Input
Amino acid sequence: MDAIDDAMSLRLWRDMLALRVYDERSVAYHRQGRIGTYAISFGHEAIQAGASAALEPRDWIFPSYRESAIGILRGLPRATVLAWWRGHPAGWWSPDRYGVASICVPIATHIPHAAGFAWGSRLRGQDRVAMAFFGDGATSEGAFHEGVNLAAVMRAPVVFICNNNGWAISTPVERQTRAETLASKAAGYGIPGVRVDGGDVLAVHEATREAVARARAGAGPSLIECVTYRMAPHATADDPGLYIDEDRVARERENECLLRFERLLRARGILDDATVEAARTAELEAMREAISIAEALEPPGIEVIFDRAYAAPPPELAREHAELRRILANEAARERSAVA
Output
């Protein structure tokens, strides 16, 4: 706490609260049929808020699906992320506007993207750092090795944030690796590896601040393993009751990251009931407005499947487009006939 002032402490808390309310409402919206399958981020807010707060506006974030809402901490509209979960084209954005790359669903494929972006930025003489977020399961993918190794060899200014919540969907971390820690994998690439408490936003922030400063000074990448425990299903389509220890989940929830930080700030006189209530009310209202905007978007036409897929579209693409239009027209005609 001595390293940051009260204003920074409140910023971290507000960022965590924004992410928490977004997550709570997104789960509710899914249950109401208003968004599609959603990757739950409950209990991971300290990692996302603590790490991203160490960056400058010119730096870039490369999120996985677990960090889908991290862009709202950089001004990305909540409605845009909700539109993404609704499968609407309005759910994509220009990454350079917010310094946030597109949400990555395939496991670990954005890690080489972050390494390449950071390397390219260094070659251009741009003072920018990239930060990639991924889960423990990503460290079992080839793209993790390729991206981290490339960044290490090229001394790219990138920080790799591994969210080790103990599970890759239903596969526990001990079934993925014989390494004592995931941070120890950094030694194989010749870069620093640090293991921190992922439920402690201050520990995450301190570790990432040091890694960002190191990257910006030209010393290359770092790997930070943030250890936490997944206290919610992997996603809204998951049934964790088949594999998870419910008693441990209950114990972990008693000390989850937002509640834990709130207790500290209250004890230090930085936070009170009125501030908490006002901030939560504002976040809830922001989410109500965002889902209204997302639901009011006009349904996209079938052209979005074909437009801008190729700079010079091959002839078969036009034939496929025409065939799809024919099929849809026939279906519409059958529906009108049935109604008549």
User: Anything to note?
Assistant: Residues 6-295 form a domain with the Rossmann fold fold (CATH 3.40.50.970).
